[in-house]
Amino acid sequence: MIIHHISEKNSILNQFLAELRDVEIQKDRMRFRRNIERIGEVLGYELSKSLPYHPKEIKTPLGSLEMQLPQEDVVICSILRAGIPLHNGLLNYFDRAGSSFISAYRHHPDNEIDFEIVVEYLASPSLENKTLILVDPMLATGRSLVSVLEALKKMGAPKEIHLVSVIAATEGIDYVASAVAEGTHLWIATIDQELNDHGYIVPGLGDAGDLAFGEKL
Hints:
The chain is an alpha/beta fold. It has a single domain, classed as Rossmann fold. It has helices at residues 13-21, 29-48, 84-93, 143-152, 170-179, 208-213, and strands at residues 2-5, 53-60, 63-70, 74-80, 98-107, 116-123, 131-135, 138-139, 160-169, 185-192, 194-195, 201-202. Strands 1, 4, 5, 6, 7, 8, 9 and 10 form an 8-stranded mixed beta sheet that branches. It has a two-stranded antiparallel ribbon with strand order 2-3. A two-stranded antiparallel ribbon has the order 11-12. A hairpin with a 2-residue loop joins strand 2 (53-60) and strand 3 (63-70). The radius of gyration is 18 Å and the shape is globular. The chain starts with a strand and ends with a helix.
């Protein structure tokens, strides 16, 4: 897996990440969602540099010129519900992309620590020979991403797969890397080193879905 760790170099991305983590600023749900969206825009811009481009003649009021434009066969898939603000950030840049949505959640059958990933809802166009951008703000254990990729196989085989997350744990990155094709790209804003006993990223930021949309039952 090819890892692109964007915050290795200082940029305005640091400000967005700091606000996401700050327990006081997190109380403003609208700002929390907007910061994830802005991070999605940054990651989308960086990702766009890796895509193939083709020449196209553009006519202006005063003449014409040839420009290199990106391919248009992109599908952005977000894992509900936490992935929606990140999805929107990417759509701001890939505005001609198709959209796919899938649900994945942790089910604890026996205790609070052990869990399995349950994938239920899926709405997606064909992914055959497309560039798939799969987004999930928190890459903790990595099991959700791997389960979702398995579920998406019935929608066709993408020619490229790009995973986009805000915060990842090293353990989750290792797990995903062991399960995906060698040419898969991971675009990550920042990497934390630890998971706690419940499989949550430390220091992380908490539950991204709850912070964006409110607590669930």
